[in-house]
Amino acid sequence: METSFLSATILLILITDPLGNIPLFITALKQVKPERRRKVVLRECLIAFVVLMLFLFFGKSFLEVMHLTDESLRIAGGVILFLIAIRMIFPSEGASLFSGKLGQEPFIVPIAIPLIAGPSAMATVLLLSTREPSRMLEWAGALTITMAVTTVVFLFSGRLNRLLGEQVISALERLMGLVLTAISIEMLMGGIASYIRHVGSAG
């Protein structure tokens, strides 16, 4: 299945899940002075953007060094996305990774990594870059739009949380999780089918 620019953008937004991460983001910034929060948001989003861009442009070289195939990456990416989607649909109560950092201003961890540039986002940009490397500018554009959306959502996270309420945000996160589940299954089946064809042709 060919990935379009729009579908890649939507996929990346679903994976980074800015709306669903609003409660965790607010918790991570709870002890940061209000006048510092905008700078922290911009800094952390920029760091996450740079990290994902590095994975996008240098991911193929990394896979070659590790002797990993496109099929294995697609299957692994599908599994990771499926696990992330299940957690979005059935969220756990604990958030110890974020609650343990309340006494200081967050730097890189936990907002930039793993809240924004988590394993699933890294695996997805790797997958995009290895499947269709000729469209790197498109993937870079999709990632740029995704990070712009994430930055705007985080900048207005307090207002959105008050406006929508926790129940609406939770419902939206579950809806995104449902869509992401279907995407992960499609990715997983595509990787398995490609592997079977590869083995068949080799035999």
From TrEMBL:
Record InterPro entries: Multi_antbiot-R_MarC
Membrane topology: Multi-pass membrane protein
Domain of life, source organism: Bacteria
Membrane-spanning ranges: 6-29, 41-60, 72-90, 111-130, 136-156, 177-196
A Pfam family that the UniProt record links to this protein: MarC
Subcellular location as annotated: Cell membrane
Main location: membrane
Entry keyword set: Cell membrane, Membrane, Transmembrane, Transmembrane helix
Family: Belongs to the UPF0056 (MarC) family.
Name recorded for this polypeptide: UPF0056 membrane protein
Organism of origin: Crenobacter oryzisoli
Upper classification of the organism: Bacteria, Pseudomonadati, Pseudomonadota, Betaproteobacteria, Neisseriales
